[in-house]
Amino acid sequence: MGELAMSERRFNDAVGYYKQAIALEPNNSANYYKLYRVHNRMHNYENALDDLSSALEHEPSKLEYREQRGKLLVALGQCDRAMSEYEAFPGLPASDIAKAKECSEEISIAQDAYQKGDYESAVLWFDRALQKVEQADDLLYMKALASYELKDYYGVVSATAKIIKNHSSHYDAYRLRGDAYFRLGENDMAVTHYREVLKLDPEHKACKAAHKRTRALMKKDKRANSAREEGNHHLAIELWIQGIDLDPTHTAYAYPTILKIAEAHTDLKQHEAALDACDRYIKLTGETAVGYIALGDAQLAAEKYQESVRSYHKASELAPDDMNQTIREKIKKAEVALKQSKTKNYYKILSIPRNAQKKEIKKAYRELALKWHPDKNTDNEEEAKLKFQDISEAYEVLSNEEMRGKYDRGEDVFENQGGGSNPHQQWQNHFSRGGGGGGQRFSFHMG
Predict the structure, then answer these.
(1) CATH architecture of the domain formed by 151-246
(2) Phi, psi for 439 (deg, rounded to 5)
(3) Has residue 445 got a pLDDT over 50?
(4) Rounded to whole angstroms, how far apart are CA atoms 87 and 105?
(5) What residues does each domain of the chain span?
(6) Closest CA to 102 of 80, 71, 72, 134
(7) Radius of gyration (C-alpha) of the chain in whole angstroms
(8) So what CATH class is 347-436?
C-alpha cells in the first residue's frame, strides 16, 4: 500500500503506511529505508536523515544506505559529517566523495572569512557551498548575517525567507529579517516580523527592544507628517529630528527625512536652514539627482535663481531617463524666474511664494494696497504712487489664471510690457466687493 501511495504521490498516506509497518516490524531496516524515500521525495530531509540512521542501526554494513546518507548529509549542508561517512566506508562513489570534500572546504573557508570580518568573501564562499546543498538553514543564516554586515538588506530578506519557509519558528531568522526591513525603511514589515517572534517568545529581549524602537519611530514620523499637513512646520521639524536621533545610523529613514525638513524650512521661509539641510543631504548621500533637485527647489524659493538653474542642470546630468522631463520643467521654471528677477517680479512685489494660492494673493494685495494707497501716504506721495501701481499690476496678473500662466512661462503679459489697467479702477473693483475680506467697504479720494 505504501508503494501504491508513493506512485500516486499521496505522500502523507505513504508515510502513515510505512510507520504502521515499522510498528509491526521495528527491526526491519527496509521499512525505515522506504520511509526515508518518502520523506526524501517530500523534501523533508531532516526526517529522511533520521529514517536512514534508523535503517543503519539495524543493518550498519548496508553500503546503499551509507551512500544515500552521505548524499543526504551534503543536501543538508553537513558536508563534514558526509566526509566522515565516506572515509569510514571505502568503495562509495568517487564523485559523491569529491562533491562532499569540495563542499566541506568551501564551508570552512566561508566560516573562517566570517570570523575574520571579511563578510564579502564569506558571502561568496557560502554561495558556492549552497549551490551544492538543498536545505542548509545554518549556512543560509550565516550568509544572511554576513549580508547584513555588508548592508545588503535585500539579500538578508531573500536568505531568511528560505529559512522561515523550512522552519516557521526560527526566531533568529525572523528577527534578522525584521532588522533588514527596518534598515530598508519598511517599518510595517519590520514590526510584523518582530511580532512573530514575540508570539512564540514574549520575553525575547532583542525583539522586544527592536519592536519598541520601530514603533516609536513610526509614531514620531506619523505625528510629524500630520503636523506638516496642518501647517505646523516647527513641530514637524522637531519631531523629524527626534525620529532621526532615535537611530542616527538608520539612513533609510534619516536621508529622506532630511529633505522633508528642508521643505518645511522653505515653507517657513527659513531659506538658509533649508539650504543647509540640502547640503547636508548631498554630503551624506553623495551626488544624486534627488539631492540636487531638492537643492534647486530650495534655491528657487530663496530667490537664488542662477544657483537654482545650475543645481537643476547638475541633477539632469545625474538623473535616470524617467526623471529628465520633470527636471527640464524645473530648469525652465528657474530660468523664467531668473529672467523675471531682472525686470518686475510680481511675486516679490506682493511678498508671496511662487506657488501661492488665490487666497494668499488676494490677502497680500489687500494689505499692501491699503498700506501704499496714495491717499494714506501724503508725505511720500510719489513713492506711494509707484508702489501702488506695481502692487495693482502684480495683482492683476497673478489673480488671472491665463495671465499668471503666461508670466510663469516667461511670456509677455502686456503689449510692450507697458503695464495693465488703471490701478485706482482695480482698487474700486476690489474693495467695492469687499475684496474677499468680509464685506468691509472703504472710500478713498481718487484725485
Answers:
(1) Alpha Horseshoe (1.25)
(2) 90, 0
(3) no
(4) 15
(5) 151-246, 269-342, 347-436
(6) 80
(7) 37
(8) mainly alpha
- Nearest by Cα to 278 from 314, 230, 224, 242: 314
Q: Are 125 and 110 in contact (CB under 8 A)?
A: yes
CB 366 within 8 A of CB 440: no
Helix, strand, or coil (residue 404):
helix
Decide: 136 and 130 in contact? Cβ < 8 Å: yes
Which pLDDT band holds residue 424 (cuts at 50, 70, 90)? low
CATH number of 269-342: 1.25.40.10
Whole-angstrom distance, CA of residue 144 vs CA of residue 196: 19
Asked if 151-246 and 269-342 have one fold, the answer is yes
Q: What is the DSSP letter of 289?
A: H
CA distances from 234 to 230, 257, 262, 407 (A): 11, 14, 12, 32
All three cell numbers of 215, joined, read: 514603533
Instruction: Please state, rounded to an integer, the average pLDDT across all residues of the chain.
Output: 89
Measured CA angle at 85 (ends 82, 90), to 5 deg: 125
Distance from C-alpha of 340 to C-alpha of 101, rounded to nearest angstrom? 76
pLDDT, position 3: 83
Q: Which three-class secondary structure string do you get for 291-352?
A: HHHHHHHHHHHCCCHHHHHHHHHHHHHHCCHHHHHHHHHHHHHHHHHHHHHCCCCHHHHCCC
pLDDT above 90: residue 433: no
Please say whether the dihedral angle defined by the alpha carbons of residues 331, 333, 335 and 337, taken in this order, is positive or negative: negative
Q: Give residue-wise pLDDT tens across range 313-371.
A: 999 999 999 999 999 999 999 998 898 888 788 998 999 988 899 999 999 999 999 99
Under the banding of pLDDT at 50, 70 and 90, the label for residue 376 is: confident
